[in-house]
Design goal:
single chain; 205 residues; mainly alpha; Serine Threonine Protein Phosphatase 5, Tetratricopeptide repeat; YggX-like; 9 helices; 62% helix; globular
Length: 205
């Protein structure tokens, strides 16, 4: 029952804003959990059309293809996903996809050498050695301070650039309005935080 509710919720978001990558990505995850693999493929494909650098999207799309009996398509997606994730510096999804390919006996693309040890400076002049945004992969530098208290606020400060955080502010408003979330309720706040984590690709951080 809860899974059906999630699917309807995410369909509502995707239909209300067809260019909302988060809505399609979240809908794909819900379909995957429900064993609706063809539907999951469609949702993840749309999310990647909107954001081709979404490393986690390739990982889950490959999983949907494989579980739907389309191993050859899964290999194509995961091979591309490894290269994209490596370019973005998203090591956890990259390594997870590479491990799947290795287990299947498929050649794994060679990882590029990414120098993340040098210092980077954000717009506020704060040095951030090795910083790379979890969503866009750019070394633009973190926020000047955490956006709110708690573990999630610290995670955002450590992994999200100012540009992507600004994008989330707009997306977060859509999430609240389109889903009718009430942030004063625990359920509403939990749903909001879930979308935030998925949009900023913080699940593996």
């Amino acid at each position: 029952m809860e899974l059906d509710r999630r699917i309807q919720q995410f369909k509502q978001m995707a239909e209300a804003d067809p260019d909302n990558e988060l809505g399609h990505f979240s809908l794909g995850k819900a379909y995957l959990d429900a064993g609706r693999f063809d539907d999951a493929v469609g949702a993840f494909t749309r999310a990647l059309d909107l954001n081709p650098t979404m490393s986690k999207g390739y990982q889950l799309l490959g999983d949907a293809f494989d579980r739907g009996g389309k191993r050859a398509r899964a290999i194509e997606v995961l091979t591309k996903g490894v290269a994209v994730a490596d370019e973005q510096g998203d090591r956890m999804p990259r390594d997870a996809m590479a491990q799947v390919l290795h287990d299947w006996g498929i050649p794994v693309p060679t990882f590029k050498t990414v120098d993340r040890s040098g210092p980077h400076v954000d717009a506020g002049g704060v040095t951030a050695p090795g910083f790379q945004c979890s969503r866009c992969g750019r070394p633009d530098g973190p926020l000047a301070k955490r956006p709110f208290k708690g573990q999630l606020g610290e995670k955002i400060l450590a992994n999200v650039c100012a540009g992507c955080w600004k994008e989330w502010i707009g997306m977060g408003t859509k999430v609240i309005n389109e889903l009718g979330l009430t942030l004063s309720s625990p359920a509403g706040q939990q749903a909001y935080d879930q979308y935030l984590v998925e949009f900023l690709q913080l699940e593996d951080r």
